[in-house]
Amino acid sequence: MKRFTLLLLGLCFAASLWAQDFSLPCGNINYRPEVQTVLLFADGDQLKDPIIPLEDMTERLTLSFDILGGDGEVLNYTFIHCNHDWQPTEIQRIQYASGFESDRVDDYAFSRNTLVEYVNYRLLFPKEDMQPLISGNYLLIVYSDDLNDLLFTRRFMVVDEKAHVGATVPRYPDDLALTDTHQQLNVKVNMSSYISVNTQQFSYLTLRQNGRWDNAAFGLKPTYVYPDYITFEHHPKTVFEGANQYLRFNTSNVYFQSENLAHIRETDDYYEFDIATCESRARKAYASYEDIHGEKFIYVENEDLDNATEADYCRINFFYKSDTPLTHEDLYIMGAINDWCFNYNNRMTYDYRLHGYTCSMLLKQGYYNFMFATVDRKTGQVMTDLTAGNHWETNNVYKLYFYFYNAIKGYDELIGYATVNSH
Fold first, then answer.
1. What's the Rg (C-alpha) of the chain?
2. 279-335: per-residue pLDDT in tens?
3. DSSP label of 48
4. Out of 62, 65, 206, 389, which could bridge 38 as a Cys pair, Cβ 3.0 to 4.6 Å?
């Protein structure tokens, strides 16, 4: 009876959603300020991208998120299929998903022994009774009662690996003027069974640098098509700013002042951390050190505590020293620290009295990477040349996604995926 009721609710939901065009942007977006620390990862590893194999996907993805000050309520989720460029596909849901149209997020727990109260939600999916049927890009949608009450959306992918994707990063790019500051990728895709007269038309390559979407290259077409492989090279979109190693700090222990932390204070509302004063690294020599490529890892140092419900939220204060404010750009804190987004949460404000930029963020205890970046006010382009500098030596991770359009079924298959270190 319970399942029958859920099915009826799902059909009602379908009538309201799938019979009309999906107009929301298909990105990683929080729609409520109280929604914090949304983690979506594969195989139980926080640092592993949410991409799973088509042949074995059941409960391979973990979703964890917090609602500050929440009372605890049953939420809902669904997902839609997207093209290679993250636009909703025009195929019917029955073609890309089995089972129910939506399901519940009902596994939640209240925070314990924390100054900041929150409710932590957890979901393992896809479920056997609600699964993707085909490969490609998907958008996870979490909402309360209906789609007018959205909490957040997140991207994930299903890969049907039928092609082998690889890349090299040559020491010298095609444009020698970029030798010391940029990194160029030469990509090769082995796909003998897919080579046809339509290979050039139906092939698409997406390139990402670390976890960034703002500078990702979408829809790249093959440069050359050979009898059993294709290449993507000598293309300006395969060239990326080298940037710099990410800065880092650790708040897993509120009683220990670790690297890059200047002060720790306990107030009535939360623990407060001051990050050591930062400044431009643009004109400084490159320094090599380990980072996690801009990501974050949520944990508390005490092994007896539960990272999900006993990690506290702390106020983190950033200061970027600058004698004068930028004239044509805004300054942001970039990284998974703010889900690789650029909004009011991570935008810095210039303080003429302090001669620098300030920003405060409420973050869950853990280890964080971050970098300062500028965003051009007219073009929206994100740059690191003024704040972090650009170095060919920087150790970046590049993520390669290869799609092939299925002309019979009318969607972009994701048939190849790889990660490549620049060094």
1. 23
2. 999 989 999 999 999 999 999 998 889 999 999 999 999 999 999 999 999 999 999
3. S
4. 65
Structural element, H or E, at residue 333: strand 329-334
β-partners of residue 263 are: 274
Domains along the chain with CATH numbers: 2-159 (2.60.40), 164-242+396-421 (2.60.40.10), 247-383 (2.60.40)
d(C-alpha 287, C-alpha 142), whole Å: 41
* Number of C-beta neighbours around residue 329 at 10 A: 19
The answer to whether 110 and 117 have CB atoms below 8 angstroms apart is: yes
Q: What residues form DSSP beta bridges with 190?
A: 164, 229
Neighbours of 25 (CB within 10 A): 11
Cα atoms in the 13 Å half-sphere on the side-chain side of 326: 20
Tell me how far apart the alpha carbons of residues 293 and 336 are, in angstroms, rounded to a whole number: 9
Residues 180 and 243: their CA atoms lie apart, in Å, by 11
Mean pLDDT of 108-124: 97
